[in-house]
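User: I'll paste a sequence; please echo it back and then give the predicted structure.

Assistant: Echoing your sequence first, then the prediction.
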Amino acid sequence: MRVAFFEDRAAQQFTPIALLRPVFELICGRYSVRERGLTQIDPDEWGVFVRDYLAETYREEHPAAHVNDFLWLGSGSTLLVNGRWLAPNGAFELLRDDEVGLIGDTVAYLTLDPAAAMTFIDRPWDVALAELARMRRPVRAEGELLGYPWDVVRHNASQLVNDFRSATASTSQTEFGPQVAVLGKPENVFVDPSAIIDPFTVLDARQGPVTVDREAAIRPFTRVEGPCYVGPNTELFRAHVRGGTTIGPNCRVGGEVEESILHGYVNSYHDGFLGHAYVCPWVNMGALTTNSDLKNDYSTVGVPLAGEMIDTGSTKVGCFIGDHTKTALASLFNTGSSVGVMSMVLPGGELLPKHIPSFSRIWHGELDGRFDLESSLETARTTLGRRGCELTTAEERMLRFLHDETAAERDAAILRFRERRNRRSQAIMREAS
């Protein structure tokens, strides 16, 4: 069997957290859509169709994948899976070749005949899929279709429960000392034998399962509430991890974290609060970095995606932080903040702007575009080197491309920031007079 995961036009709606990765590589639960799909389908071959500027780095990271390869797509029958589809457990076992799975009007899956592969070469995916879908028997696809970054966070808790149930090993064999409290049913806690659970820690599985993966470490005075997943080689220091949280591999985390996703390689060692947030790799959050995830009037939260304010329809939304961004001491993010790739956040003692575009900086309370790309790339090389990784030539090319592509968004954001600042200054002067 062959399977290909694809991005449709809605992939553009997942900025800033999908700027450096396809939407099907975003984490929801323990896995990404692609990881979960490959595990359930176990195909002989697999491929992906992604935005052009992501193709080179994806080939580098996943050499087994056929990337944007239409010749491969035409060489055999292939199951096409929308990268935004959160399929329920067992869904792939029930699919039939003559049907198209729909959620609303959007294609969730479709088995492609080789002769129809050329349909995709000279037209957008959405148009080609719609044309092919009309030739198939429509059925309602079970599961959820992600639409925006906050949807990933919203479904994280339920996916954590589903992923725990489908795991091959669900019961921990680790013997805990008397100073480790395990609350709830023991079968809802899995701790890999190589993980370290120090004294004076709590694993609370009363509201959902808790998984601590290989070589992770839970240090003293840490409480982990389920549903929760702590990834490989991650360390928690004096942390209070609330339910609905995924902390990916190689993270260093302290403070309070609630219903958030730390994709991996995130450093948030010190005290602070992170709630209903998604944080991308290689983000460093300075001491006391905190976000709001609830407005004082309990109204729904708007998030500026690429500068356009979108109403989430939810009252609990935190921040979304792109790769390689650094926040300094006591950075305070407003409810529903969007922070782009490789930004430098140096707070000025007040709430930060809700929209901080990629490759920009906050300097003494001012949003500006005086950003040194070469210096930031050097910092990225150093950061990756500290974890035994390297910034490849392909990754550097992708960052340079994205720097140019986001220039208009950056200029518009800086202009809006200055206009708001001037209006505020004029209002203060009028009141003073």
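The chain has two domains: 2-147, 154-432. The chain has nine helices and 38 strands.
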